[in-house]
Amino acid sequence: SLRLHGTEEDCSDRTSSQCIRFRAQFTAFLQCFCTSEVQILPVCSDRIVLIMGARSQLWSIAKMSVTGGVIGVTISDRYVTVVAIKGHSMHPTMTATDSALRGDIVLAEKACLDQYKFSRGDVILFKCPSNHKEVFVKRLIGLPGEWIQLPASSEIIKVPQGHCWVEGDNAARSWDSRSFGPIPLGLINGRVTHIIWPPSKIGRVERKWPEDRIPPF
Amino acid sequence: MITLMIPKTKGKIIPIEPSSPSAAAMSRFVRRLAGIPWRQIAGEASSVGLLMAQGLCAVHVVSEHVLGVAFPRGPSMLPALNMAGDVLLTDKVSPRRGWVGPGDVVLLLSPEDPRKIVAKRVLGMEGDEVTYPVDAGNSDATKTVVVPQGHIWVQGDNIYSSNDSRQFGPVPYGLVKGKMSYRIWPPSRIGSIDSKE
Question: Looking at the whole model, is its pTM more than 0.95?
Fold first, then answer.
Protein backbone atom coordinates (compact mmCIF):
# COMPACT_ATOMS: atom_id res chain seq x y z
CA SER A 1 0.00 0.00 0.00
CA LEU A 2 1.08 3.52 -0.66
CA ARG A 3 0.70 6.31 1.80
CA LEU A 4 0.19 9.86 0.64
CA HIS A 5 0.77 12.57 3.13
CA GLY A 6 -1.48 15.55 2.76
CA THR A 7 -1.05 18.68 4.72
CA GLU A 8 -3.35 20.03 7.29
CA GLU A 9 -4.41 22.85 5.09
CA ASP A 10 -5.44 20.47 2.34
CA CYS A 11 -7.61 18.21 4.38
CA SER A 12 -7.92 19.37 7.96
CA ASP A 13 -11.51 18.27 8.30
CA ARG A 14 -12.03 14.93 6.55
CA THR A 15 -15.76 15.36 6.44
CA SER A 16 -15.68 18.71 4.69
CA SER A 17 -17.15 18.66 1.21
CA GLN A 18 -13.99 20.10 -0.24
CA CYS A 19 -11.96 17.22 1.18
CA ILE A 20 -14.44 14.69 -0.13
CA ARG A 21 -14.35 16.24 -3.59
CA PHE A 22 -10.56 16.26 -3.59
CA ARG A 23 -10.48 12.58 -2.65
CA ALA A 24 -12.98 11.70 -5.36
CA GLN A 25 -11.01 13.55 -8.02
CA PHE A 26 -7.71 12.10 -6.92
CA THR A 27 -9.17 8.59 -6.89
CA ALA A 28 -10.49 9.04 -10.43
CA PHE A 29 -7.11 10.34 -11.56
CA LEU A 30 -5.24 7.36 -10.13
CA GLN A 31 -7.84 4.87 -11.39
CA CYS A 32 -6.69 5.65 -14.93
CA PHE A 33 -3.32 4.05 -14.19
CA CYS A 34 -4.51 1.09 -12.16
CA THR A 35 -6.31 -2.02 -13.42
CA SER A 36 -7.45 -2.89 -9.92
CA GLU A 37 -9.49 -0.79 -7.58
CA VAL A 38 -8.01 2.33 -6.06
CA GLN A 39 -9.17 3.40 -2.65
CA ILE A 40 -8.20 6.48 -0.66
CA LEU A 41 -8.99 6.28 3.02
CA PRO A 42 -8.98 9.27 5.29
CA VAL A 43 -7.21 7.71 8.23
CA CYS A 44 -6.52 10.90 10.07
CA SER A 45 -6.65 14.60 9.37
CA ASP A 46 -3.19 14.98 7.95
CA ARG A 47 -2.78 11.70 6.13
CA ILE A 48 -4.36 10.07 3.09
CA VAL A 49 -3.76 6.33 2.85
CA LEU A 50 -3.87 4.88 -0.66
CA ILE A 51 -4.53 1.17 -1.00
CA MET A 52 -3.69 -0.38 -4.35
CA GLY A 53 -4.48 -4.04 -4.98
CA ALA A 54 -1.13 -5.38 -6.14
CA ARG A 55 -2.24 -8.92 -5.35
CA SER A 56 -5.31 -8.70 -7.56
CA GLN A 57 -3.12 -7.56 -10.47
CA LEU A 58 -1.03 -10.72 -10.19
CA TRP A 59 -4.24 -12.73 -10.02
CA SER A 60 -5.56 -11.26 -13.25
CA ILE A 61 -2.23 -11.94 -14.99
CA ALA A 62 -2.44 -15.55 -13.78
CA LYS A 63 -6.02 -15.86 -15.03
CA MET A 64 -5.10 -14.47 -18.45
CA SER A 65 -2.15 -16.83 -18.85
CA VAL A 66 -4.19 -19.88 -17.87
CA THR A 67 -6.92 -18.92 -20.34
CA GLY A 68 -4.35 -18.29 -23.06
CA GLY A 69 -2.66 -21.59 -22.31
CA VAL A 70 -5.92 -23.55 -22.47
CA ILE A 71 -6.93 -21.94 -25.76
CA GLY A 72 -3.43 -22.51 -27.16
CA VAL A 73 -3.45 -26.20 -26.22
CA THR A 74 -6.88 -26.67 -27.81
CA ILE A 75 -5.82 -24.99 -31.06
CA SER A 76 -2.60 -26.99 -31.12
CA ASP A 77 -4.50 -30.24 -30.58
CA ARG A 78 -7.30 -29.76 -33.06
CA TYR A 79 -6.35 -27.27 -35.77
CA VAL A 80 -2.73 -26.30 -36.32
CA THR A 81 0.56 -26.74 -34.49
CA VAL A 82 4.16 -25.59 -34.89
CA VAL A 83 7.00 -28.12 -34.89
CA ALA A 84 10.78 -27.80 -35.13
CA ILE A 85 12.50 -30.36 -37.35
CA LYS A 86 15.31 -32.47 -35.95
CA GLY A 87 17.20 -34.92 -38.09
CA HIS A 88 18.17 -35.02 -41.74
CA SER A 89 15.77 -37.58 -43.14
CA MET A 90 13.78 -35.04 -45.15
CA HIS A 91 16.66 -33.12 -46.70
CA PRO A 92 16.43 -31.02 -48.86
CA THR A 93 12.73 -30.36 -48.26
CA MET A 94 13.37 -29.75 -44.59
CA THR A 95 16.65 -29.69 -42.72
CA ALA A 96 17.92 -29.62 -39.19
CA THR A 97 20.88 -27.44 -38.30
CA ASP A 98 23.06 -27.07 -35.27
CA SER A 99 21.85 -23.57 -34.51
CA ALA A 100 19.83 -22.62 -31.46
CA LEU A 101 16.53 -23.07 -33.29
CA ARG A 102 17.48 -26.65 -34.11
CA GLY A 103 16.42 -26.41 -37.71
CA ASP A 104 13.44 -25.64 -39.88
CA ILE A 105 10.16 -24.78 -38.21
CA VAL A 106 7.02 -26.07 -39.90
CA LEU A 107 3.28 -25.68 -39.57
CA ALA A 108 1.26 -28.88 -39.26
CA GLU A 109 -2.50 -29.11 -39.58
CA LYS A 110 -4.66 -31.48 -37.55
CA ALA A 111 -7.88 -31.36 -39.56
CA CYS A 112 -6.75 -34.46 -41.48
CA LEU A 113 -7.04 -36.51 -38.27
CA ASP A 114 -10.82 -36.24 -38.38
CA GLN A 115 -11.32 -38.78 -41.16
CA TYR A 116 -7.73 -39.98 -41.66
CA LYS A 117 -7.95 -39.18 -45.35
CA PHE A 118 -4.46 -38.67 -46.75
CA SER A 119 -2.99 -38.48 -50.24
CA ARG A 120 0.13 -40.04 -51.65
CA GLY A 121 3.05 -37.66 -51.27
CA ASP A 122 1.80 -35.86 -48.14
CA VAL A 123 4.40 -35.05 -45.53
CA ILE A 124 3.15 -36.30 -42.17
CA LEU A 125 4.14 -36.24 -38.50
CA PHE A 126 3.77 -39.49 -36.62
CA LYS A 127 4.85 -41.20 -33.40
CA CYS A 128 7.70 -43.65 -33.77
CA PRO A 129 6.34 -47.21 -33.52
CA SER A 130 9.17 -48.33 -31.28
CA ASN A 131 9.25 -45.28 -29.00
CA HIS A 132 6.00 -43.43 -28.42
CA LYS A 133 7.79 -40.34 -27.10
CA GLU A 134 9.54 -39.54 -30.41
CA VAL A 135 7.82 -37.85 -33.32
CA PHE A 136 9.02 -38.41 -36.89
CA VAL A 137 8.38 -36.49 -40.08
CA LYS A 138 8.31 -38.43 -43.37
CA ARG A 139 6.51 -38.56 -46.67
CA LEU A 140 3.54 -40.84 -47.20
CA ILE A 141 4.36 -43.28 -50.02
CA GLY A 142 1.73 -46.00 -49.69
CA LEU A 143 -1.91 -45.71 -48.62
CA PRO A 144 -3.89 -48.57 -47.00
CA GLY A 145 -4.62 -51.41 -49.40
CA GLU A 146 -2.08 -50.37 -52.03
CA TRP A 147 0.64 -52.56 -53.50
CA ILE A 148 4.00 -50.82 -53.51
CA GLN A 149 7.44 -51.79 -54.65
CA LEU A 150 10.22 -51.82 -52.10
CA PRO A 151 12.88 -49.41 -53.38
CA ALA A 152 16.01 -51.51 -53.20
CA SER A 153 14.66 -54.87 -54.30
CA SER A 154 11.97 -55.88 -56.76
CA GLU A 155 9.73 -57.09 -53.95
CA ILE A 156 6.13 -56.00 -54.02
CA ILE A 157 4.17 -55.81 -50.77
CA LYS A 158 0.65 -54.83 -49.85
CA VAL A 159 0.08 -52.12 -47.27
CA PRO A 160 -2.41 -53.56 -44.74
CA GLN A 161 -5.74 -51.91 -43.94
CA GLY A 162 -5.41 -49.07 -41.44
CA HIS A 163 -1.66 -48.75 -42.11
CA CYS A 164 0.55 -46.64 -44.36
CA TRP A 165 4.07 -46.77 -45.79
CA VAL A 166 6.33 -43.79 -45.08
CA GLU A 167 9.74 -42.86 -46.43
CA GLY A 168 12.03 -39.90 -45.98
CA ASP A 169 13.16 -37.76 -48.92
CA ASN A 170 16.80 -38.30 -47.99
CA ALA A 171 16.86 -42.05 -48.51
CA ALA A 172 20.41 -42.50 -47.28
CA ARG A 173 19.77 -41.00 -43.83
CA SER A 174 16.18 -41.92 -43.19
CA TRP A 175 14.94 -44.53 -40.75
CA ASP A 176 11.50 -45.28 -42.08
CA SER A 177 9.13 -48.00 -43.23
CA ARG A 178 11.97 -49.75 -45.04
CA SER A 179 13.19 -50.65 -41.54
CA PHE A 180 10.12 -50.74 -39.31
CA GLY A 181 7.45 -51.66 -41.84
CA PRO A 182 4.07 -50.05 -42.42
CA ILE A 183 2.78 -47.96 -39.52
CA PRO A 184 -0.81 -47.80 -38.20
CA LEU A 185 -2.61 -44.61 -39.26
CA GLY A 186 -3.50 -44.05 -35.61
CA LEU A 187 0.11 -43.01 -34.91
CA ILE A 188 -0.17 -39.99 -37.21
CA ASN A 189 -0.04 -36.63 -35.42
CA GLY A 190 -0.63 -34.21 -38.27
CA ARG A 191 0.17 -33.18 -41.83
CA VAL A 192 2.89 -30.63 -42.59
CA THR A 193 1.61 -27.86 -44.83
CA HIS A 194 4.06 -24.93 -44.62
CA ILE A 195 7.60 -24.10 -43.62
CA ILE A 196 7.68 -20.90 -41.59
CA TRP A 197 11.43 -20.61 -40.76
CA PRO A 198 14.07 -19.84 -42.06
CA PRO A 199 12.74 -16.95 -44.15
CA SER A 200 14.49 -18.22 -47.28
CA LYS A 201 12.39 -21.37 -47.18
CA ILE A 202 9.00 -19.93 -46.25
CA GLY A 203 6.28 -21.48 -48.38
CA ARG A 204 4.01 -24.46 -48.90
CA VAL A 205 5.29 -28.00 -48.55
CA GLU A 206 4.11 -29.58 -51.78
CA ARG A 207 2.76 -33.07 -52.25
CA LYS A 208 5.52 -34.69 -54.27
CA TRP A 209 6.26 -38.14 -55.59
CA PRO A 210 9.91 -39.31 -55.53
CA GLU A 211 11.37 -39.30 -59.05
CA ASP A 212 12.54 -42.85 -59.47
CA ARG A 213 9.67 -44.69 -57.78
CA ILE A 214 7.02 -46.58 -59.62
CA PRO A 215 3.64 -45.30 -58.40
CA PRO A 216 1.64 -47.90 -56.50
CA PHE A 217 -1.35 -49.73 -57.91
CA MET B 1 -43.16 2.71 -54.36
CA ILE B 2 -42.93 4.93 -51.32
CA THR B 3 -39.84 7.08 -51.06
CA LEU B 4 -38.85 8.62 -47.77
CA MET B 5 -36.67 11.67 -48.08
CA ILE B 6 -34.43 11.91 -45.03
CA PRO B 7 -32.35 15.09 -44.90
CA LYS B 8 -29.41 15.03 -42.47
CA THR B 9 -28.99 17.94 -40.09
CA LYS B 10 -25.74 18.03 -38.07
CA GLY B 11 -25.61 14.25 -37.97
CA LYS B 12 -29.18 13.86 -36.78
CA ILE B 13 -31.76 12.27 -39.04
CA ILE B 14 -35.04 14.19 -39.04
CA PRO B 15 -37.80 12.21 -40.70
CA ILE B 16 -40.21 14.03 -42.94
CA GLU B 17 -43.90 13.50 -42.26
CA PRO B 18 -44.99 10.48 -44.33
CA SER B 19 -47.78 10.85 -46.79
CA SER B 20 -49.68 7.55 -46.37
CA PRO B 21 -50.56 5.03 -43.61
CA SER B 22 -48.14 2.37 -44.86
CA ALA B 23 -45.38 4.94 -45.05
CA ALA B 24 -46.25 5.88 -41.48
CA ALA B 25 -45.94 2.25 -40.40
CA MET B 26 -42.58 1.92 -42.14
CA SER B 27 -41.17 5.04 -40.57
CA ARG B 28 -42.33 3.76 -37.15
CA PHE B 29 -40.56 0.49 -37.87
CA VAL B 30 -37.35 2.28 -38.90
CA ARG B 31 -37.45 4.38 -35.74
CA ARG B 32 -37.97 1.23 -33.65
CA LEU B 33 -34.97 -0.40 -35.34
CA ALA B 34 -32.80 2.64 -34.64
CA GLY B 35 -33.86 2.54 -30.99
CA ILE B 36 -32.55 -0.97 -30.36
CA PRO B 37 -29.10 -0.80 -28.76
CA TRP B 38 -27.29 -2.81 -31.46
CA ARG B 39 -23.81 -2.02 -30.25
CA GLN B 40 -24.63 -3.11 -26.72
CA ILE B 41 -26.18 -6.33 -27.93
CA ALA B 42 -23.18 -7.06 -30.16
CA GLY B 43 -20.84 -6.39 -27.26
CA GLU B 44 -22.72 -8.70 -24.94
CA ALA B 45 -23.05 -11.41 -27.59
CA SER B 46 -19.33 -11.36 -28.30
CA SER B 47 -18.43 -11.55 -24.62
CA VAL B 48 -20.83 -14.46 -24.10
CA GLY B 49 -19.39 -16.12 -27.20
CA LEU B 50 -15.86 -15.66 -25.89
CA LEU B 51 -16.85 -17.15 -22.55
CA MET B 52 -18.40 -20.15 -24.29
CA ALA B 53 -15.27 -20.64 -26.40
CA GLN B 54 -13.11 -20.55 -23.28
CA GLY B 55 -15.41 -23.09 -21.62
CA LEU B 56 -15.26 -25.44 -24.59
CA CYS B 57 -11.47 -25.18 -24.72
CA ALA B 58 -11.27 -25.99 -21.01
CA VAL B 59 -13.54 -29.02 -21.50
CA HIS B 60 -11.36 -30.20 -24.39
CA VAL B 61 -8.12 -29.85 -22.42
CA VAL B 62 -9.50 -31.72 -19.42
CA SER B 63 -11.12 -34.55 -21.38
CA GLU B 64 -8.11 -35.04 -23.66
CA HIS B 65 -5.25 -34.67 -21.25
CA VAL B 66 -6.54 -35.36 -17.74
CA LEU B 67 -9.74 -37.34 -17.29
CA GLY B 68 -12.23 -38.43 -19.90
CA VAL B 69 -15.42 -40.47 -20.07
CA ALA B 70 -15.89 -43.58 -22.18
CA PHE B 71 -18.95 -45.62 -23.17
CA PRO B 72 -17.58 -49.01 -24.25
CA ARG B 73 -19.84 -51.31 -26.25
CA GLY B 74 -19.40 -54.85 -27.45
CA PRO B 75 -18.85 -58.32 -26.05
CA SER B 76 -15.07 -58.50 -26.20
CA MET B 77 -14.45 -57.48 -22.59
CA LEU B 78 -17.14 -59.57 -20.85
CA PRO B 79 -17.46 -60.11 -17.91
CA ALA B 80 -15.38 -57.13 -16.80
CA LEU B 81 -17.33 -54.66 -18.97
CA ASN B 82 -20.98 -55.00 -19.97
CA MET B 83 -22.02 -55.19 -23.60
CA ALA B 84 -23.52 -51.72 -23.37
CA GLY B 85 -24.56 -49.13 -20.86
CA ASP B 86 -21.32 -48.86 -18.92
CA VAL B 87 -19.81 -45.45 -18.29
CA LEU B 88 -16.13 -45.44 -17.43
CA LEU B 89 -13.69 -42.78 -16.31
CA THR B 90 -10.59 -42.74 -18.49
CA ASP B 91 -7.28 -41.62 -17.13
CA LYS B 92 -5.40 -39.77 -19.89
CA VAL B 93 -2.30 -38.93 -17.87
CA SER B 94 -1.05 -42.48 -17.30
CA PRO B 95 -0.40 -43.52 -20.92
CA ARG B 96 1.56 -40.35 -21.63
CA ARG B 97 3.79 -40.97 -18.64
CA GLY B 98 4.17 -44.67 -19.37
CA TRP B 99 2.29 -45.84 -16.27
CA VAL B 100 0.51 -48.64 -18.14
CA GLY B 101 1.30 -52.24 -17.32
CA PRO B 102 0.03 -55.79 -17.80
CA GLY B 103 -3.51 -56.26 -16.49
CA ASP B 104 -4.67 -52.69 -17.23
CA VAL B 105 -7.72 -52.11 -19.38
CA VAL B 106 -6.81 -49.48 -21.98
CA LEU B 107 -8.49 -47.52 -24.73
CA LEU B 108 -6.59 -47.59 -27.99
CA LEU B 109 -7.05 -46.63 -31.62
CA SER B 110 -7.68 -49.75 -33.64
CA PRO B 111 -4.72 -50.59 -35.94
CA GLU B 112 -7.24 -51.74 -38.53
CA ASP B 113 -9.25 -48.50 -38.59
CA PRO B 114 -7.91 -45.40 -36.82
CA ARG B 115 -11.39 -43.92 -36.48
CA LYS B 116 -12.41 -46.77 -34.16
CA ILE B 117 -11.51 -46.76 -30.48
CA VAL B 118 -11.37 -50.15 -28.79
CA ALA B 119 -11.06 -51.22 -25.15
CA LYS B 120 -8.83 -54.19 -24.41
CA ARG B 121 -6.69 -55.54 -21.58
CA VAL B 122 -2.91 -55.33 -21.78
CA LEU B 123 -1.33 -58.77 -21.46
CA GLY B 124 2.29 -58.01 -22.25
CA MET B 125 4.65 -55.03 -22.50
CA GLU B 126 7.77 -54.80 -24.66
CA GLY B 127 10.09 -57.70 -24.15
CA ASP B 128 7.47 -59.91 -22.46
CA GLU B 129 6.69 -63.39 -23.68
CA VAL B 130 2.98 -63.84 -24.29
CA THR B 131 1.29 -67.22 -24.70
CA TYR B 132 -2.12 -67.04 -26.29
CA PRO B 133 -4.75 -69.44 -27.54
CA VAL B 134 -4.64 -69.45 -31.31
CA ASP B 135 -8.15 -70.66 -31.97
CA ALA B 136 -10.15 -70.38 -28.76
CA GLY B 137 -13.19 -72.65 -28.55
CA ASN B 138 -12.11 -74.90 -31.40
CA SER B 139 -8.71 -76.11 -30.27
CA ASP B 140 -6.35 -75.83 -27.34
CA ALA B 141 -3.36 -74.85 -29.45
CA THR B 142 -1.34 -71.95 -28.10
CA LYS B 143 1.48 -69.87 -29.45
CA THR B 144 4.19 -67.90 -27.67
CA VAL B 145 5.48 -64.63 -29.00
CA VAL B 146 7.89 -61.97 -27.73
CA VAL B 147 6.49 -58.46 -27.78
CA PRO B 148 8.78 -56.15 -29.81
CA GLN B 149 10.23 -52.91 -28.49
CA GLY B 150 7.73 -50.08 -28.10
CA HIS B 151 4.74 -52.41 -28.58
CA ILE B 152 2.13 -54.01 -26.34
CA TRP B 153 -0.02 -57.13 -26.60
CA VAL B 154 -3.72 -56.52 -26.02
CA GLN B 155 -6.45 -59.09 -25.68
CA GLY B 156 -10.13 -58.95 -24.82
CA ASP B 157 -11.24 -60.79 -21.67
CA ASN B 158 -13.81 -62.67 -23.75
CA ILE B 159 -11.40 -64.57 -25.97
CA TYR B 160 -14.22 -66.25 -27.89
CA SER B 161 -15.52 -62.97 -29.23
CA SER B 162 -12.68 -60.50 -29.44
CA ASN B 163 -10.70 -59.02 -32.30
CA ASP B 164 -7.36 -58.24 -30.70
CA SER B 165 -3.62 -58.83 -30.93
CA ARG B 166 -4.28 -62.47 -31.78
CA GLN B 167 -5.55 -61.18 -35.11
CA PHE B 168 -3.70 -57.90 -35.68
CA GLY B 169 -0.49 -58.56 -33.77
CA PRO B 170 1.24 -56.44 -31.14
CA VAL B 171 0.33 -52.75 -31.36
CA PRO B 172 2.64 -49.76 -30.89
CA TYR B 173 2.31 -48.13 -27.48
CA GLY B 174 1.61 -44.81 -29.21
CA LEU B 175 -1.89 -46.01 -30.10
CA VAL B 176 -2.95 -46.15 -26.43
CA LYS B 177 -5.16 -43.18 -25.67
CA GLY B 178 -6.32 -43.78 -22.11
CA LYS B 179 -6.46 -46.17 -19.19
CA MET B 180 -9.86 -47.16 -17.87
CA SER B 181 -9.69 -46.79 -14.16
CA TYR B 182 -13.13 -46.40 -12.63
CA ARG B 183 -16.68 -47.33 -13.53
CA ILE B 184 -19.34 -44.75 -12.64
CA TRP B 185 -22.43 -46.43 -14.14
CA PRO B 186 -24.43 -48.67 -13.59
CA PRO B 187 -24.71 -47.94 -9.88
CA SER B 188 -24.63 -51.62 -8.96
CA ARG B 189 -21.11 -51.95 -10.36
CA ILE B 190 -19.55 -48.64 -9.37
CA GLY B 191 -15.92 -49.14 -8.50
CA SER B 192 -12.49 -49.51 -9.94
CA ILE B 193 -11.84 -51.87 -12.83
CA ASP B 194 -9.95 -54.86 -11.53
CA SER B 195 -6.57 -55.25 -13.04
CA LYS B 196 -5.80 -58.92 -13.29
CA GLU B 197 -2.97 -60.70 -14.95
Answer: no
